[in-house]
Amino acid sequence: MRWLVSLLWFGCVACQVVPADKQVEPATEPPVKITVIGTSDFHGALESKKGKRVGGRKVGGIDIIAAYFESIRAANKDGFILLDAGDLYQGTLISAASEGRAVIEFYNEIGYDAVAVGNHEFDFGPVGYHSTPANPDDDPLGVIKLRIAEANFPFLAANINDRTTKKPVSWKNLYGHTILTRKGIKIGVIGLISQDTSLITNPKNVASLQFEPLVKTIKQELVKVRQAGATVVIVLAHAGVRTDQKTGKLSGPIAELAQALKPGEVDLIVAGHEHVACNGKVNKIPIIQTWAKGVSFSRAELPISKKTGRVISDQVVLHSSEFFVRTDKKGGPAKYAGRTINPSTHFVKKLKKFKQSVDHLDRIELGRAAKTMQHQTVLDSPVGNLVTDAMRATDSSIDISMYNSGGLRTSIQKGVVTYGRIYEVVPFDNNIITVSLTGAQIREIVEHGLSGPYGVMEISGLSVVFNSKAPTGKRCMKITTLDGQELDEKKLYTVATNDFVLSGGDGYHVFAQGSNIRNTHTLIREVVARYIKEKGTIAPGKTGRYKPVNDSGASKKK
């Protein structure tokens, strides 16, 4: 019986109620993990090109991009969000040939959750050959409406209003925000587009639209997403940030937006438009932004409390931008987060079909480049000099030619120069415009380029000595023409430019004040292609059309 008594005694002890202060609290439930991937400024980069290399390895190509996303999605299937901050399709021959349809088709299959409207989405203008309205029946918003309607994902832009009604535009599949549900969490994604879109796209195509301030818009849209039940808010913006090289701080429109909000009002901003990678926090709000042209992606991990549905802000992880490398360092399959990344065979086949439609153009050889010619430099660039020289050579009556540097999109690599490459250098369907301008007006245009945010005006037929530290509007110290004579402020000069700046693009309003304006209806891209074919071999040549001076007024050696 002793064993029975002992057993009963032990059982009573085992079931005794433990005092409350001695109870062990149940383990806190781990947070919900949401993986957010951001891309931006793809610009039709469906192919991996020779010049796209990181550490000697090729990067990009829609087949490897799709494979990366498939792998990341598989690791967090129900908690994966894929976003793009805009500028999808202007920039390559394969994309432009279908006015962006190729990119939409690939994005549909990859499974994007939302895309912001970028300024270059407006570039194609009416459906068909013309990139701006050619007659009263043309809808300057024809292509953008069509592409947005074709997408299986929502396009977002809360700050595009109709100029007449002052209300948000009503286009099929365009919204101010969307609500995504992941692992039971409602996530609001708000879209924004840069407020200066009316300046940096062809003004003719957006004349009926008004782009509202970012801060004002986000305040209004936040109310709507919260009312819709969102406990997490992501801003997807075709506007961006840059990192100050001295302080390391983020600056720019999106940094200003974050500063104007309260910490926690927005849980993440996926930015774009700037073509540079930046990750960081402003006012405790995380911001991610990646490189352009399909070479990389940004990533954020959002831990969300199951109890509150809110982001645990001090546990948010921002990853450095990751490149879409096609191989490892030894030439084998690429690896990411412990997984092997092999190009998607489906996308390889699909891309091949699109390429076949433009291969005949891409293969046309125009000539050779003796050396690589850069398109983005601090002052006049080799590509800018080539394009403006080609424009000036079209007519002996042209004294000066000018092209906005932002309209030149890539460099010319050493070796064979094909028509396809020139299409990517000058992707916009701009015509040569000739206009009579006074020397004073030309000086004002050059001053605007030196002082504005869009880069200098590329020039041919002029030489400019300037002081970058002088006050805005007074930086040009001396401008001379090809014959060495100083620019006569009262004399009329025949200037060749493009229809984008004539319409006030990049803030160049002075061109329209000239006289004898004539549209030659000659595509600048075709002029450049013909010029290279006639030359046979092109080379960077001597730069220095812009000559900076030091504080003493002496010219700096270049």
Q: If you had to describe this structure to a student in words, what would you say it looks like?
A:
By secondary structure, the chain is α/β, with parallel strands linked by helices. The chain folds into two domains: 32-132 and 139-354, Metallo-dependent phosphatases (Purple Acid Phosphatase, chain A, domain 2), CATH 3.60.21.10; 365-548, 5'-Nucleotidase, C-terminal domain (5'-nucleotidase,  domain 2), CATH 3.90.780.10. The chain is 25% helix and 27% strand. The chain is built from 15 helices and 32 strands. The strands form nine sheets. It has a seven-stranded mixed beta sheet, with helices on one face. Strands 9-10-12-15-17-16 form a six-stranded mixed beta sheet, covered by helices on one side. Strands 26-23-29-25-30 form a five-stranded mixed beta sheet, with helices on both faces. Helix 11 crosses helix 15. The termini are far apart. The model is unreliable at 1-26 (pLDDT under 50).
CATH homologous superfamily grouping of the largest domain: Metallo-dependent phosphatases
Mean of residue pLDDT? 91
Whole-number tally of structural domains: 2
The coarse silhouette is: globular
What is the rounded Rg? 28 Å
Order of strands across the widest beta sheet?
8-6-5-4-1-18-19
Structural class: alpha/beta
Low-confidence spans: pLDDT under 50, at least 5 residues?
1-26
The name CATH uses for the topology of the largest domain is: Purple Acid Phosphatase, chain A, domain 2
Helical element count? 15
- The percent range for helix content is 10-25%
CATH architecture label of the largest domain: 4-Layer Sandwich
Q: Can you tell me the CATH class of the largest domain?
A: Alpha Beta
Q: Give the N-terminus to C-terminus distance in angstroms.
A: 106 Å
Q: Please count the beta strands (DSSP E, at least 2 residues each).
A: 32
Strand content: 25-35%
For the sheet with most strands, the description reads:
7 strands, mixed
